[in-house]
Design brief:
This protein has 228 residues and is mainly alpha-helical. It has eleven helices and two strands; from the N terminus they run αααααααααββαα. A two-stranded antiparallel sheet has the order 1-2. It starts with 18 loop residues before the first helix and ends in an 18-residue tail after the last helix. InterPro entries: NACHT-WD_repeat (IPR052752), NWD1/2-like_WH (IPR057588). It comes from Capitella teleta (Polychaete worm).
Length: 228
């Protein structure tokens, strides 16, 4: 990178955060959010950050800390993730525990397959046309009544749970949801073993969405539930 710069003065190296920097960042964010930590919580948080003092890890870990209650007992090393990958996997597992692996993996697979991201409406349309997902979130009565639509409330909750792992960007005058860092997409791909065929299927689903293949109605066939 340095070789591509016209002026060598434009290049500077970001050094690892020292103890003073870490405590300052923690105090500043907590102050912005009008939150505080107990002494043991603050010690465990700062000690964990020292193990990987990079901004991406610090930001994710601080998001976790903002959710702690004052009664939560936190021990460095045993209660806190020690890497970016483990932090992301912890968030994904939290979503899975609430909505199941099928819903979580299909949702994130679409985001992994979309080069620039998807709008919220596009993502909801894709999930609404995915029979595996719909069977997970709708009751048999809703399916028989023809109420085939992925609940927007689930997506909004998932987005809140994932926090800064996802971001909203503007592309061609359009707001799109995408991964805020490529390492997050890599962790999701590895967790759900997203293989070439699954990516191809996601691409087919996205192509059908933009070609308006299923405008108005997509057949919902569930033989074991006598639905078609």
């Amino acid at each position: 990178m340095r070789n591509h710069l016209i002026s060598k003065d434009a290049f500077f190296e970001l050094e690892a955060l020292d103890d003073g920097d870490i405590q300052h960042i923690v105090d500043d964010l907590l102050s912005q959010q009008k939150r505080s930590l107990t002494g043991p919580q603050n010690t465990a948080l700062c000690n964990t950050i020292r193990q990987q003092p990079v901004p991406l890890f610090v930001n994710l870990l601080l998001e976790e800390a903002l959710q702690w209650s004052s009664s939560k007992n936190i021990q460095c090393g045993s209660d806190l993730p020690d890497s970016i990958e483990s932090l992301v996997n912890s968030r994904l597992k939290m979503v899975e525990d609430i909505y199941g692996e099928t819903v979580t993996s299909r949702m994130l697979r679409y985001l992994c397959s979309a080069h620039h991201g998807l709008s919220e409406m596009e993502l909801l349309d894709l999930l609404s046309c995915n029979n595996d997902v719909i069977q997970e979130v709708l009751t048999p009565l809703e399916l028989q009544a023809g109420l085939i639509r992925f609940p927007a409330s689930i997506w909004l909750h998932v987005r809140k749970l994932l926090g800064s792992i996802l971001e909203e960007v503007r592309v061609d005058q359009k707001s799109l949801i995408c991964w805020s860092h490529r390492v997050f997409a890599l962790v999701a791909s590895q967790r759900y073993r997203i293989k070439t065929e699954e990516i191809k299927q996601s691409h087919r689903d996205i192509a059908e969405l933009f070609l308006e293949t299923w405008v108005g109605n997509k057949p919902m066939v569930v033989p074991e539930k006598d639905i078609q």
